[in-house]
Write a structure and sequence with these properties.
Mean pLDDT: 97
Distance between the termini: 37 Å
Bound molecules: flavin-adenine dinucleotide
Largest sheet: 4 strands, antiparallel
Structural class: alpha+beta
Number of helices: 12
Strand order of the largest sheet: 2-3-7-6
Helix content: 40-55%
Radius of gyration: 21 Å
Length: 384
């Protein structure tokens, strides 16, 4: 099959070994738990430690901080394996690809030594809190305040839609630390949430998909965080730090999108070969064949776009516009392909016990988080 014959040009032997490791781990530790995690709206706490013990957490963080010493390509392999089994519960991308990289890129030496080894072992789970009830896309309008008081910041405000909101031990908070206009007044402050007075976890949000993820509201009331937890140690750099890291967040979303499109086509082909209607299998109807041929083309095109971005990103050459382009285009393709593949399943496609149904429900948010696809197009357009 054309999708099986294609191999990503960056997929080295070392990465193929990782693919096998991740596949075995996810099949054993995720597949049997998917329905239960969806019901409890979170993965088990021990699962994070199991992932750490398997070497899957912070795989692209340098070994001196407990990480795997790999690159973004390693993260991409793990994300693609999650997509293969429609795992929408384990927010490893937020933890390993996003939060750990904020710490690695901007943390002081002391901050990196203090936090990264725990993130790599799974003892500390990471989350990032940018979005607020009043602002999402327009990050410069963040209202959460961090006021310096002696050796602390006193933080007040509320955040919403925070992935890993239940499990998070380390929370990177986007807060306004001065009245300087726009992004210049923003800083990133890391809260260690265990027994932290003033830190409240609010509602676990009922989403239309990704039920196994602990997406929550969080709020801070006179919450004191040591000033030493200011990421990088200098105020006012928050917006710039976000702008530097968001391309990687966008690219990992595109990786999941392309891998999910491929997985959806594979599921639909298998089903179409097996399901009988009017005395023949679905794959013998010309419409099914054409739909699947078109979906295979879309999925393969998304993969090759993502592959070129991964190669450029690992070489340090992918800019914000390139990552934004991949994010909006691949997530649009993901939604289109998953929807068309679901149709082939008929009524069974609407049943949550079928992976294609979970893929459908999980796909929608890919066009929204990490920066909406409209904002992605703005970023691309500005570069034209
Ligand atoms: C499941 C889930 C998980 C999430 N996880 C996290 C997380 O871990 N941490 C975190 O901080 N956030 C998280 N988010 C929040 C997410 O990043 C935001 O929802 C997203 O950035 C959009 O912000 P908003 O919801 O406030 O929409 P708004 O910014 O209010 O946008 C509403 C609509 O207006 C459009 N729009 C806005 N501005 C423009 C413009 N200039 N031009 C054209 N159209 C525009 C948008 O594209 C969108 O269609 C998560 C969200 C979800 C649903």
């Amino acid at each position: 099959m054309i999708l099986d014959d294609y191999r990503s040009p960056w997929l080295t032997e070392d990465l193929l070994d990782l693919q096998q490791l991740a596949r075995t781990f996810l099949d054993k530790e995720v597949l049997p738990n998917q329905a239960r995690w969806a019901e409890q709206h979170m993965v088990d706490r021990d699962f994070w430690r199991a992932a750490g013990a398997a070497g899957l957490l912070c795989i692209s963080i340098p070994e001196e901080y407990g990480g795997g010493g790999g690159t973004f390509a390693h993260e991409a392999v793990i994300a693609a394996e999650q997509a293969r089994i429609a795992d929408d519960a384990w927010a490893n991308s937020v933890h390993s690809t996003i939060v750990a990289h904020y710490l690695a890129a901007f943390g002081t030496e002391e901050q990196k030594q203090r936090w990264l080894p725990g993130m790599a072992s799974g003892d500390l789970v990471g989350a990032i809190a940018m979005t607020e009830p009043g602002t999402g896309s327009d990050l410069q309008r963040v209202r959460t305040r961090g006021i310096r008081d002696g050796d602390d910041y006193v933080i007040n405000g509320s955040k919403t839609f925070i992935s890993n909101g239940t499990h998070c031990d380390l929370l990177v908070i986007v807060a306004r630390t001065s009245d300087e206009a726009g992004g210049r007044g923003l800083s990133l402050i890391v809260a260690e949430t265990a027994d932290l007075p003033g830190f409240q976890r609010g509602r676990v949000l009922e989403k239309i998909g990704m039920h196994g993820q602990d997406t929550r509201e969080l709020s801070f009331t006179d919450m004191r965080v040591p000033a030493a937890n200011l990421l990088g140690g200098v105020e006012g750099r928050g917006f710039q730090q976000l702008m530097e890291q968001l391309p990687q967040e966008r690219l990992i979303i595109a990786v999941t999108a392309a891998a999910t499109a491929v997985a959806a086509v594979r599921h639909a082909i298998a089903y179409a070969k097996e399901r009988q209607a009017f005395g023949q299998d679905l794959l013998s109807f010309q419409n099914t064949r054409f739909v699947l041929a078109e979906c295979a083309a879309d999925a393969l095109a998304a993969r090759t776009l993502v592959d070129s971005c991964i190669t450029r990103h690992v070489a340090g050459e992918l800019d914000a516009a390139g990552a934004s382009l991949a994010k909006f285009w691949c997530t649009d393709i993901q939604n289109k392909v998953v929807d068309r593949c679901l149709q082939i399943f008929g009524g069974y496609g609407y049943m949550m016990e079928y992976p294609i149904a979970r893929m459908y429900a999980a796909a929608r948010v890919q066009k929204i988080y990490g920066g909406t696809n409209e904002i992605m197009k703005e970023l691309v357009a500005r570069s034209l």
